[in-house]
Write a structure and sequence with these properties.
This protein is mainly β and 171 residues long. Helix content is 0%, strand content 40%.
Amino acid sequence: NPDVARAAGGELVMTFRQAPRRARCTHIDPLSRATIIRSNDNGQTWDKAVPVAAAIGGKDVGIQDPSIAALRNGWMICNFFTWYVPADAPYGAIVPGTYVTISHDGGKTWDPRHIPVALSVRVGADSATSDALVEMPNGDLLMPLYDGNELDRGGGYRAVIFRSADRGQTW
């Protein structure tokens, strides 16, 4: 699911999940990561893909569905969820939570932190996102998530909205 936003300087910034080429394609990959490409000519040409610093997967941890949003103050926020892919995972993977990383310079550099979207990182939440956040007129940020918290009780997934009143530092 690629996602694109226009940075404050007019440049297009696209993010997408990138995983190693394998003999067999899989939806879950412990080495997947969020990457970005940039275009200065409205998408006619694109720079080489580079990883979003904070969203590089570690051992048995992959990144899924990165999205990007440009804020009015010039910041960009990349949101994504992570897969933990241990050999004994009951459904092939565990979803530890949804996170954001922030760029203060139009997506050129990224904060090295994974900022957790509160409550999405609780055990068993199975919370994930696959769409960019939205900046409200008052500056609050809204991020849609889907949450499998009811699955163990015979329910299904539910849609939830998380709000940040401090530009993505807390949710």
